[in-house]
Amino acid sequence: MSSESFLPSQQLGLILIGLCLLSLVETYGFRKCTQYELNIHHVFCIRKKITNLTDAIGDIPRYTTHLNLTQNQIQVLPPHSFANLSNLVDLRLEWNFIWKIGEGAFKGLGNLTFLNLVENKIESVTNSFEGLSNLETLLLSHNRITYIHKTAFVPLVKLKHLSLSRNFITNFSNVLEAVQHLPCLEYLDLTNNSIISLDHNPRSLVSLTHLSLQGNKLMELNFSALSLPNLTTLDVSQNRHQVIQNVDLETLPQLRNLNLSGTLVKLEMLLAKYLQNLRKMDISNLELRGNHLNLNTVCHLLRNLPILEALVFQKNVIDAGNIKHLANCTRLLSLDLSQNSDLVHLNDSEFVAMPSLQSLHLNKCQLSFVSNKTWSSLQNLTSLYLSHNKFKSFPDFAFSPLKSLQSLFLSRNPITHLNNMAFKGLYLLKELNLAGCWIVMIDSSSFVHFTNLESLDLGVNNIRTLKHRPFRFLKKLKILILSRNRLEVIENSAFFGLTYLYYLDLTYNSLSGFHADLFLGLENLEVLNLSYNKISYETTRTLPFPPFNNLKSLKQLNLEGQKQGIQVVPTNFFQGLSGLQELFLGKNSRVFLDHLQFDPLVNLTKLDISGTKAGDRSLYLNTSLFQKLKRLKMLRLENNNLESLTPGMFSGLESLQVFSLRFNNLKVINQSLLENLKSLMYFDVYGNKLQCNCDNMWFKNWSTNTADVHIPYLRSYPCQQPNTQSLLIDFDDTMCNFDLGKVYFFCSFSLVLTTMVFSWFSAKIISSLWYGLYIFRAWYLAKWHRTEKEFIYDAFVSFTATDEQWVYEELVPALEDGGQPKFKLCLHHRDFEPGMDIFENIQNAIDTSRKTLCVVSNHYLHSEWCRLEVQLASIKMFYEHEDVIILIFLEEIPNYKLSSYHRLRKLVNRQTFITWPDNVHERPLFWARIRNALGNRTMEKDNAQLIVVE
Ligand SMILES: *[C@@H]1O[C@H](CO)[C@@H](O)[C@H](O)[C@H]1NC(C)=O
Ligand SMILES: *[C@@H]1O[C@H](CO)[C@@H](O)[C@H](O)[C@H]1NC(C)=O
Ligand SMILES: *[C@@H]1O[C@H](CO)[C@@H](O)[C@H](O)[C@H]1NC(C)=O
Ligand SMILES: *[C@@H]1O[C@H](CO)[C@@H](O)[C@H](O)[C@H]1NC(C)=O
Ligand SMILES: *[C@@H]1O[C@H](CO)[C@@H](O)[C@H](O)[C@H]1NC(C)=O
């Protein structure tokens, strides 16, 4: 009874020593920040409503290298803000309200290489970057910058990458003036500003390789004054302010990629002689106002670009005939004709003049037909993109000429049926994407011609069943995606033949169970995702065919988010998964795991049962559940509304490093919870209801003294009592060091006394004497004359006449007849000896039953007999240290009515609750829990506990 609350004097001594050291040791948990669970050098202070930066980062250690302050409300960076964090390498301040950066704000950050100030309210860039002599990346996108001081970037001698996109910059000269001091600058991003003209003062940016002026308002492309000898990539797309006539790219001799997409440039003005190094050009969406696109002009340009390899030519309203024209004037390796809405039929060898083509994009056209001649000359094509078109099917041999094809994308087409003859001859195909089509059925012949396929995406279709070994020809397949179909049934050995499959995605289907040998043959499967299906079990009963038994190589298994909750996990469900490393069971509304389920998982390193939101009512984890998980490193039980955890439950987890109980309803953390966790480095109890009382004294002292275990946000934990603003770490526990043994002895003694006195007075006058006498006798016998009794019944059922119907129609059939093991119940109308005194009968029934099952309702609380039954049973429980009482709550009972039972509940502060559920789907779990509570025939003394089932 409450044994975990006793503190042996040895520990008290240690705590006292700890208290003395308190002032010397740094708390290993901060107020607004937390270290990253796998690397103490990374600190996150995300979404903490931080306004005062100095304050927020004041307590984080100097060795921090990465600091993430995203999504706060910081307005000002004061001078020397990071003076104590001289080891910072990476600093993220995006998504704040920063408008002012104090002079020398970053001083001392000599090792910083990355600084992110995206999405703030900076209007001008002044001399704020002093000291950042190793900075390589500076992101200032999405601010309100209009002005940059000439010398602002002078200290940034190592800067390579500067982004100023999405600001209000109009003056390009101003930018150049500032960046010309950057000897290493390679990337300059000015996307989405309001620059109208280029600079005409002679300038040179020798190191620059990438320049983006996308989405500005340029009226000219005359770079003649700007020498960019090493520029390889120029993006001037989406400048659609007016038609550009003035183009000069002579000063960009190394230009390889030019993007003019959507820019109103006259192509005649592009002089090919200055573009002799061009490899890739994007001239999409050139709807020149008034003029129709003149393919002759395009061809003229292309003819004079001999080494051009890739052309992007989207949204240009060309038809099948135009393609031939285009094909005739260049020798491309890659052509992108996506979003050309006039392309409907391709059946006339359109690409005959492009035998060198390796990659062809025809996404989002209106294509509905191709013939077996369409691709006849594309012998070298390796990738073909036909997504988002109108194909319903393909004629025989449609793709057969594509002898070199490796990737084929057919997603988002209204294909209902796969004609396997269309794909005959695709011997080299490795990747096939059929996601988002209308496929209803696949069968054993569907994939007969894909003998070398490695990746097959069939997600988002309408497939209901898998039968007849549909994948048996895919001997080399590694990745198979079947998510978001309507799979209800997967027949035996449906995956037969997939010997090399490594990844199988079955998420978002309607699978509810597994046939025997379903996964037979998947010898190399490492990742299996079954989340968001309808897998549910009603009893822990051993399955005749454990579903994963054949998956010898499985490393990761995901069973999250089953429709009704996975409910009662069968005992041998995970049998065979001795190599499993990661298991995800969260987001299930009901999970019941009683003993042995995890025993096969000896190599598990990561276990996540988070987000059940179920509370103690629907998430049940047995004490012995985790004992075999000797290699477990990471355990997450977040967001579960857990109110209590059984002591010792985690004591086998000797390798556990990261343990998160974030967002539950725990009030107390005691030492026994963390016993034997030798490897613990990170213990997260943020967002619980920890109270500042003596029960938490151990946690308070341990957490503020431990130098090995990081406790996220420890210094911000509030006391969860009404009317207090104080913090857990400030809780004054001196009064707790009182002789606890005596206190507890006195308390338990007075409790018994109160129990008796209360019973005495609360009983009606006539029966009170007898009542009291029986209570006294029970207490006396229990305390002084403990005898070994033979049990006749598994449980004595205590209930009132009003609940009789429920007992006989639900309880008795479920426990005595339904399922294994069968229990023997003692019911007064049925099993009491006639003629014997009723008190004697009750005492006998309790003594000869292993447990007492109290069926609690409002009527029950008003019944004197029931009250007596509870009292007698609780006396037995109190002295025999056995969890003999199981409370079933049939209806919601207001707290005040429970007052006399409240004391019972207080005796043990780790109750378990579930309601008799109105919802029929929840009942299997309810019964499983009752059965489990009744089933512990041998109870160790230490584990004695009161089980309250609401
Ligand atoms: C931030 O907090 C520090 C002390 O923690 C204080 O000295 C400073 O004035 C505060 N700054 C602002 C802007 O409130
Ligand atoms: C910083 O935090 C934001 C917000 O959670 C996240 O998106 C981002 O990836 C983080 N950055 C790093 C480097 O961890
Ligand atoms: C930068 O890091 C190195 C180690 O990588 C360290 O020796 C040096 O002192 C640091 N510089 C600063 C200014 O902190
Ligand atoms: C850029 O090109 C010039 C020649 O124009 C060359 O001397 C220099 O090393 C190059 N700089 C970089 C950073 O590549
Ligand atoms: C292709 O170009 C040749 C000359 O280079 C010309 O004779 C032929 O008609 C062109 N074909 C098409 C379809 O434009």
Automatic annotation (TrEMBL):
Localisation per UniProt entry: Membrane
Q: Which UniProt keywords apply?
A: Glycoprotein, Immunity, Inflammatory response, Innate immunity, Leucine-rich repeat, Membrane, Receptor, Repeat, Signal, Transmembrane, Transmembrane helix
Where in the sequence is the signal peptide annotated?
Answer: 1-27
Domain of life of the organism in this record? Eukaryota
The TIR domain covers 791-934
Question: Which GO molecular function terms does the record list?
Answer: signaling receptor activity
> Which Gene3D superfamilies does this UniProt record tie to the protein?
Ribonuclease Inhibitor, Toll/interleukin-1 receptor homology (TIR) domain
> What Pfam family does this protein match (any one)?
LRR_8
- SMART domains (alphabetical): LRR_SD22, LRR_TYP, TIR
GO biological process annotation, one example: innate immune response
Q: Does the keyword Transmembrane helix apply?
A: yes
- Please name the InterPro entries in this protein's record: Leu-rich_rpt (IPR001611), Leu-rich_rpt_typical-subtyp (IPR003591), LRR_dom_sf (IPR032675), TIR_dom (IPR000157), Toll_tir_struct_dom_sf (IPR035897)
> What kind of membrane protein is this, topologically?
Single-pass type I membrane protein
Gene Ontology CC terms, in alphabetical order: plasma membrane
Family statement drawn from the similarity comment of this UniProt entry: Belongs to the Toll-like receptor family.
Protein name per Swiss-Prot or TrEMBL: TIR domain-containing protein
